[in-house]
Design goal:
elongated, 5-stranded parallel sheet, alpha/beta, about 475 residues, Rossmann fold
């Protein structure tokens, strides 16, 4: 049995008993039939979820449900409230959402659908608890030489950087693309004794092999066609400072030998040159490839590998840095608000779920680009998943939550409802919620639901839904 507590508020004892039995395997269920009982339970039992029948007396004009809703959210602003309304009571449902309810459901109630809503509400509550936890430990999260992090893994890496920076040992930074390897390299340089000298990055995989040697080691006049003048390479430019060899796994074998010689003797020769040039350069290398496996097929030299790998700093992918996602998202939000003169306040609940559950194959670089797009494309004050070109939270998120909290017991009868009725009820609810989220904007609702505008108009006609009912009065014609 889950430890999540659900408060059921309804004046009909038969309905309370039905709900209590239906949800007993999903939640710890407590009940209340009056406003006084509900408020007392909220103060003493601290439920995370509440189902509230807005018309406790059976009279839609009675505002007792709104009084309970207001008091409940004053007692616990994080409480997730799902209000139950009559089929023709859409105006009160919208008012309840505006006043802080998470969701609404219209009678007649289908238990399985309501269970899905509750699981989603519980998932959101758990997500918000995680966010609150991260905010409370915010003193541990910090910006370190331009790197934003709060996760244990990254804080440990910061400590490693502090230890290796004062030395001249070679460092190998590994990790997937977009994890921030160059940022770590720059941080090492910034707090090292070489900080007032040059930091020179070069991507070994971005330059053709026939040009890379000249880029790295320079060339003498006339050494090859087009060499009209002598030119120093990156090694010479970095003299006294740091040379960052990004994607070192892409180096051809001939250049691996020359890099190895420099690491041994601190000496280079320009292309076409005969005189050795003595330099003082620290080497920091990075790769997203598995160099150890490259040793086996001899595509990377073993002696060079051990020379550059005096200290290894493996960067975890963003998917394993769960604590950093909110911190980074908020940082990028504020940054691009300033850059583009926008005033986006934050992320919707759906957007937060998506940010936490997305796999982030592009890591921090992808997160930054998604949030940037969200700031630019947001049509309101809160970023939605489509603004970031990300899918809305899938049923899989709810299933993951249900799995984490424990499987439900036997299936619950739905008071004789047929499969067709259940399907149409879910369809009706999806349409209503999509239009509610987008304030009656048919195009946006159609995009979220993955259907065309004509198809959505046909569905609204079928379910007798008028998008004008979801628009603010000032938008009505």
């Amino acid at each position: 049995m889950t430890t999540t507590t659900l408060l059921l508020v309804d004046d009909e004892e038969a309905i309370l008993k039905q709900f209590q039995w239906a949800f007993k395997n999903d939640f710890k269920v407590i009940t209340a039939q009056t406003a006084e009982e509900a408020i007392g339970a909220l103060k003493t039992k601290s439920p995370e979820l509440m189902i509230l029948d807005l018309s406790l007396t059976g009279d839609p004009a009675n505002l007792e449900g709104f009084r309970i809703l207001e008091s409940a959210l004053q007692i616990d602003p994080a409480l997730k409230v799902i209000v139950i309304t009559g089929h023709d009571d859409k105006e009160n449902a919208l008012t309840a959402i505006e006043r802080g309810a998470l969701d609404f459901y219209t009678k007649p109630v289908a238990i399985d659908e309501l269970r899905t809503i509750l699981r989603r509400a519980s998932y959101i509550r758990s997500l918000e608890s995680e966010i609150s936890r991260l905010k409370k430990k915010g003193h541990r999260g910090r910006e370190f030489e331009g790197i934003i992090a709060t996760s244990e893994a990254m804080l440990e890496i910061f400590e490693t950087v502090k230890k290796v920076a004062p030395t001249d040992v070679s460092v190998l930074i590994t990790g997937e693309s977009g994890t921030g390897k160059e940022l770590i390299a720059r941080a090492i340089h910034k707090i090292s004794p070489r900080q007032n000298k040059a930091f020179i990055p070069i991507n070994c995989g971005a330059i053709p092999e026939n040009l890379l040697e000249s880029e790295l080691f320079g060339h003498e006049k006339g050494s090859f066609t087009g060499a009209h003048a002598s030119r120093p390479g990156k090694f010479e430019v970095a003299d006294g400072g740091t040379l960052f060899l990004d994607e070192i796994g892409e180096l051809p074998p001939s250049l691996q030998v020359k890099i190895l010689r420099f690491l041994q003797d601190q000496v280079i020769e320009r292309v076409g040159g005969r005189e050795p040039i003595q330099l003082d350069v620290r080497i920091i290398a990075a790769t997203n490839r598995d160099l150890a496996s490259m040793l086996e097929d001899r595509s990377f030299r073993e002696d060079l590998y051990y020379r550059i790998n005096t200290i290894s700093i493996p960067l975890p992918p963003l998917q394993q840095r769960h604590d950093d996602i909110l911190l980074l998202s908020t940082h990028f939000l504020h940054h691009y608000n300033r850059e583009y003169s926008r005033n986006v306040r934050g992320f919707s609940q759906a957007a937060l779920e998506t940010l936490y559950n997305y796999s982030w194959p592009g890591n921090v670089r992808e997160l930054e680009n998604r949030v940037k797009r969200g700031v630019i494309m947001s049509r309101g004050k809160m970023i939605q998943p489509p603004d970031m070109d990300l899918p809305s939270p899938a049923e899989g998120a709810e299933e993951r939550f249900a799995g984490a909290e424990g499987k439900a017991g036997a299936s619950v009868p739905t008071a004789g409802i047929t499969l067709k009725e259940a399907r149409e009820g879910m369809e009706n609810r999806l349409l209503n919620n999509a239009l509610l989220r987008h304030s009656g904007n048919v195009s946006a609702a159609a995009q979220e639901l993955g259907v065309s505008r004509p198809t959505l108009h046909d569905l609204m006609k079928k379910h007798q839904i008028d998008p004008e009912d979801f628009r603010a009065p000032k938008n009505k014609k």
